[in-house]
Each structure stands twice: as structure tokens, then as C-alpha cells.
Design brief:
By secondary structure, this protein is an alpha/beta fold. The protein has 19 helices and twelve strands. The chain folds into three domains: about 140 residues, NusB-like (N-utilizing Substance Protein B Homolog, Chain A); about 55 residues; about 200 residues, Rossmann fold.
Length: about 450
């Protein structure tokens, strides 16, 4: 008898379930790969699972184009688990050399049979479709022969939804967009900031060496790792917190720009990354960190406890109503909710959720938040606005609109060449991050 048993810690089976969670249930990658949510897998299987899910998400448009072309059933009528299985299998057929085609196919059929043991037609469909797809050969030649217009071709090859590609093209040259998105195919790295309150740099470096962990360190002492592995333990002990390099580098610069900060109001503060960097770099007496999400604040509370940062106070509230604060602050920080398009390299699922309407609604929210935030800045104090977006709509356009309406605020040039701080992943190997600094004149 044929053995269709699949252990439910099988990495390809799990990759299918995770992809289904992300594409059909609004889950995010971090729900599965960070913290303790992941079923017990050895590190090698966990890495494989991560490679398959992230890889599939970064080739999502192309994979669906191919599936759509050859499937006899419309994709929106295919069972979500089976569609996810087809997607991860197509990814492996074209973009991974870990298994030969026949083994990818056999494994997919086995998983389909395990999931639907009584529905033979389902495994038959998976088998037939993947068999056809495995005969395509070179996907580049295949796309070339499809007679597509340049926009569609670029959208498929770069994995950027057409509306977003049009929007990006209105701000950046195609070459720059291509650089970014080719670079974004690489696995993202993990960046950590040391908490010297808990461990000195020398001791921590020794610990890393003793454990045989590979790492790099920048002149600013930002630690760079290729794998999450042991890092979660260090985070729990409060030795480090994870903060993307693009963001950390911003705070090194901010420290040079502004001084003598006693009290900070961090609006949109949870789960805490910016508050922690503000604490380390500006050394204020107090930070009030507000957020409307209780869940994210609970997470932040745990992180603060790990780090033993005792002058950060948490407030659950809505930053469009700041009447509870009777005084003004030396610095008000707005890390606005945004499209998160800059985090694509780490969280490629952001592109599944984004559309024109959401971007519009984000920019309205961002403007509203700034319009309340500025009122809480002391005379001579600072207002900082940041996003993890690469869209001018959420960055330059929001801050310039603000400056036009508030002549008592002036933008501080970030550097000689640049008015604002802006990173693109292919320049600095982190997320796309934007920030603007304003000073209140009167
Ligand atoms: C980009 S995230 C903040 C990340 C955080 N600053 C950090 O560095 O870890 C945006 C945050 O804004 C919060 N938020 C959105 N609208 C809000 C509002 N009207 N009032 C307060 N918080 C809000 C969200 O709950 C989310 O936590």
C-alpha cells in the first residue's frame, strides 16, 4: 500500500499551512517565525520552511500568473490549502534547487492526499498541473514568449502590483526600482542593538564567539546576523533588541542634530523600537509612549521589562485626542501607521494587502496625527515624523503639506545633500525608512 503519511512537522506541509495563513487569514510572517508560536522543528527544517514561504511571497505574482495560465480551474475556486500547496511547489520548481522536480511533485501529491484522503480528484489535479508546469523550463524565456507589455512584464518580474509600480514610477526611475526589488530578493538580515545596561559589548561579543555564532559589527556597534537562531534568547534576556539598520543609523544621526531633551512624547509608540532608540541615544529623563493598541503595548511592556528600561511610561490612547497632556514636550515623535512598503524585504506579505484606497486612507490618518502632534511640542522643541514606507505620498507629500500649513515649524535638513533621511534597501541593507525633523520656532 502507498504510504501517504505526512508528519505534521514536515517543513513543506507546514510551509503550505503558513502560506495559507498569510494569504487567506491576514496573518503575518512574524506570527509564525518569531516567538514561540512555531511548532517544534529543528533549526534546519525551520530555515527551509522560512526559505520556501518567503521565496514564494517574493515571486507571488509570477507564480500566480503561471498557475492561472495552466490551471483548468479558476484559482479563486481552488481550495485555499491546495492553492497554497501549488504556490509553494511552483516556487520550488523554478527557484530552488534543493530537490529535483519529480521529488517536488511527489511530495506535493503526497501532501494533497494526506490532507484530502478521500478526494482523489484533488491529488490528480495537483499532479497534472504541476507536471505541466514542470515542463516549462526556463521561466524567463517563458515570460519573454508571452507577448506581455513592458508594465506587466516588469510587474511580474519585480513582484510589484501594477498600481504600485505605476505609483513608484511617478517618483523614481525604473532603474532604481529594479535595483531595490532585485536586492529585495535576498534574504533579509537581522540587526540588533546592544543594551549595555545588561551586558557590556566585550562580554556579549565573547558570548557570541563562545556559541560559535556568526556576526558582523558596524562602527556604530550595530550587530548583524544572517539567522535569527539564538537571537531570541538574547532578546528575552534583554541583552539586545532587534532594530533595523536603516532605523538605527537614523538615530545615530538624530543624536548629532538635537540635544538637551528631557521629556519625549512618542505617539504611535508600540511595540517600542523607536522609544528604545530614543532612550539610548538621547538619554531623556522620561519618555511617554502612547499607542491605541493594547495588545502591542502589552508586548512593549514585556520588552521594557526584559531591557530594564525604567523611564518609559506606557499609555493606551488615541493620539488624535491628546487633551490628557496638559504640558508640552521637548520632542514629539510620530512613527506613523503606514503602508509598510519599505519592509517588503523582511515582510513581503505587505504587497498582498496594499491597494490605492488603503494608501489614501493612510495619508489622511498621517496628516491627522501630525495635526494633533505638533500642538504638544514646546517652543524650541522638535517634532519628528517617520514611516517605513517608500511612497512619496506618505512621506515627502505629508510633511510638505504639514509645513505649508504650519509656518511656525521649520524642517531641519538632515544632511548637506538631503533634506530628509531616506533609505533604500540596496544602499543600506535594511528596510526603506523615511524621517523628517522639524523645529518649532515660536
Ligand atoms: C509604525 S507602528 C509603530 C511602531 C513603533 N513606533 C515601534 O518603533 O516599535 C504604528 C503604530 O501606530 C498605532 N496607531 C495607529 N493609529 C493610532 C492612533 N490614532 N492613536 C494611537 N496609536 C495609533 C498602531 O497601533 C501602531 O502600533
Amino acid at each position: 500500500m502507498e504510504n501517504n503519511f505526512i508528519d505534521n512537522t514536515n517543513p513543506r506541509y507546514l510551509a503550505t499551512l503558513i502560506l495559507k495563513g498569510i494569504t487567506f487569514e491576514e496573518k503575518i510572517l512574524d506570527d509564525f517565525f518569531f516567538g514561540k508560536n512555531f511548532p517544534i522543528l529543528n533549526q534546519k527544517d525551520k530555515d527551509l520552511c522560512y526559505f520556501i514561504v518567503v521565496g514564494t511571497l517574493k515571486k507571488f505574482l509570477l507564480i500566480d500568473f503561471i498557475l492561472k495560465k495552466f490551471s483548468k480551474i479558476e484559482l479563486n475556486k481552488v481550495d485555499p490549502f491546495i492553492l497554497s500547496l501549488l504556490r509553494i511547489s511552483t516556487f520550488q520548481l523554478f527557484f530552488s534547487n534543493k530537490l529535483p522536480s519529480y521529488a517536488i511533485l511527489n511530495e506535493a501529491v503526497k501532501i494533497a492526499k494526506f490532507k484530502f484522503p478521500r478526494k482523489k480528484y484533488i491529488s490528480g489535479y495537483v499532479n497534472g498541473l504541476l507536471r505541466t508546469i514542470s515542463k516549462i523550463g526556463d521561466h524567463l524565456k517563458f515570460i519573454e514568449n508571452e507577448n506581455l507589455n513592458e508594465m506587466t512584464k516588469n510587474s511580474l518580474m519585480l513582484n510589484i502590483p501594477p498600481f504600485l509600480l505605476k505609483k513608484l514610477l511617478s517618483s523614481y526611475e525604473l532603474k532604481k526600482i529594479k535595483n531595490y526589488f532585485h536586492h529585495a530578493q535576498n534574504p533579509s538580515k537581522y540587526y540588533a542593538v546592544l543594551n549595555e545596561k545588561k551586558i557590556s559589548l566585550n562580554k556579549f561579543l565573547k558570548l557570541l564567539k563562545d556559541k560559535g555564532l556568526e556576526f558582523e559589527i558596524t562602527p556604530e556597534e550595530i550587530l548583524i546576523f544572517n539567522k535569527i537562531g539564538e537571537l531570541e534568547n538574547f532578546v528575552e534576556k534583554g541583552f539586545i533588541f532587534l532594530q533595523d539598520i536603516s532605523i538605527s543609523k537614523f538615530f545615530f544621526k538624530l543624536k548629532e542634530q538635537i540635544k538637551n531633551i528631557d521629556e519625549i512624547l512618542d505617539l504611535c509608540g508600540a511595540p517600542g523600537g523607536k522609544s528604545f532608540s530614543l532612550k539610548l541615544h538621547l538619554n531623556p529623563k522620561k519618555i511617554l509612549s502612547l499607542d491605541k493598541s493594547f495588545k502591542r503595548l502589552l508586548n512593549m511592556k514585556k520588552r521594557i521589562k526584559n531591557l530594564s528600561f525604567n523611564n518609559i511610561c506606557l499609555i493606551c490612547g488615541d493620539c488624535t485626542n491628546l487633551s490628557m497632556f496638559k504640558k508640552n514636550f521637548d520632542l514629539v515623535y510620530v512613527d506613523a501607521p503606514c503602508s509598510s512598503t519599505g519592509t517588503y524585504v523582511k515582510n513581503p506579505e505587505v504587497f498582498l494587502r496594499i491597494n490605492e484606497r488603503k494608501i489614501k486612507s493612510m495619508t489622511t490618518i498621517q496628516k491627522n496625527i501630525l495635526d494633533k502632534a505638533f500642538k504638544k511640542v514646546k517652543k524650541g522643541g522638535y517634532l519628528v515624523y517617520s514611516t517605513c514606507s517608500i511612497l512619496k505620498d506618505e512621506n515627502e507629500m505629508v510633511v510638505e503639506n504639514f509645513l505649508e500649513r504650519h509656518s511656525n515649524f521649520e524642517s531641519i535638513n538632515f544632511s548637506l545633500e538631503n533634506k530628509y533621511y531616506k533609505t533604500f534597501p540596496h544602499f543600506l541593507d535594511g528596510i526603506g525608512f523615511f524621517s523628517a525633523i522639524f523645529i518649532r520656532k515660536e
